[in-house]
Structure formats: C-alpha cells, structure tokens
Write a structure and sequence with these properties.
By secondary structure, the chain is α+β, with helices and mostly antiparallel strands. It has a single domain, classed as Gcn5-related N-acetyltransferase (GNAT) (Aminopeptidase, 3-Layer(aba) Sandwich). Helices cover 27% and strands 25% of the residues. A 7-stranded mixed sheet has the order 1-2-3-4-5-7-6. The radius of gyration is 15 Å and the shape is globular.
C-alpha cells in the first residue's frame, strides 16, 4: 500500500483523531460505537494505519473474547472513503488476525447490518460467511454474523 505507514496498535492519542473522522467516513453518526475503551484499554489488539503524512487511513477496534478464548471479535473497522478498494481494510483485518492468533485465537467474527452492501461484499471477499440473525442487537437490529478461520488472507 503505497503512501501508507505500517499498521500499528491503537493508542489513547488515536481516539480524538478517530472521533474527528469517523462520522464522515461512515456517512452517519457512530455515537458510542466508537468507544474510548478500545483505545485506552484494548489498544494492543486494535489496529491503526496512517498515511505517510500522519493523517489517518483506517482503524480497527477489536478484542479477544473472554467467553470464547479462540475467538477474535471485530467490533468496528473504518477506512477513509478515498482509500477504499485499495487493500487498507484487508490489511487491518490481517494485522488484527495475526495479533489475535498470537493469543491463541483460531477464528474471527464480525457483524454487518443487512443493508450495508459494501460491508457485506468486503467480508465475503475476505472469505467470511454467516447467517442473518434477526434481532441480534435487539428488536429490529438484525445482523449478519460473519465468521471465518484465521489467518485472514
């Protein structure tokens, strides 16, 4: 990925930068989905990629499940719209998967809303598959529960 620095773990200082771009990148307010906890307490699993000039290119918030220790869970990933389709999202998932494998994970899970066609296509292109689960996040909050084995290609 030309013009980008190597992926690195998230840090507390990345929170304000992520918060400043997230709503624009998603095209809607992300609210508490972008929780500071991931930056302050779970940073070593999260992934940050920036351009050579230091501006953000993408980030992933993830964790290793405490109830299913072999599961790496992607809470949220975001890529600058100007860089989509250039491998940034896949690089985020690969790096997160490698870190999670170092902690004993053998599989990775991510969710997508059924109307988010871009997210669905992205996950399927990386080899994820999974069912649509009605009410997964509460009434009217259906999600496709994607999963695949690690590593991510």
């Amino acid at each position: 990925m030309h013009g980008l620095r190597a992926p690195r773990p998230l840090g507390p200082a990345d929170f304000d930068v992520a918060r400043a771009v997230a709503d624009d990148w998603f095209g809607h307010p992300v609210g508490l989905t972008l929780h500071r906890l991931f930056f302050d307490q779970l940073g070593p699993y999260g992934v940050w990629i920036e351009r050579d000039d230091g501006s953000p290119a993408g980030f992933l918030l993830g964790l290793v499940s405490q109830s299913e220790p072999d599961l790496a869970y992607v809470h949220l990933h975001a890529v600058d719209p100007a860089l989509r389709g250039q491998g940034v999202g896949a690089a985020l998932y690969r790096e997160f998967g490698l870190r999670a494998m170092g902690s004993g994970c053998t599989r990775i899970r991510a969710l997508a809303a059924p109307h988010r066609e871009g997210s669905i296509a992205f996950h399927r292109a990386l080899g994820f598959d999974g069912p649509l689960v009605e009410g997964f996040l509460g009434p009217g909050e259906d999600r496709i529960v994607f999963e695949r084995a690690l590593p991510v290609p």
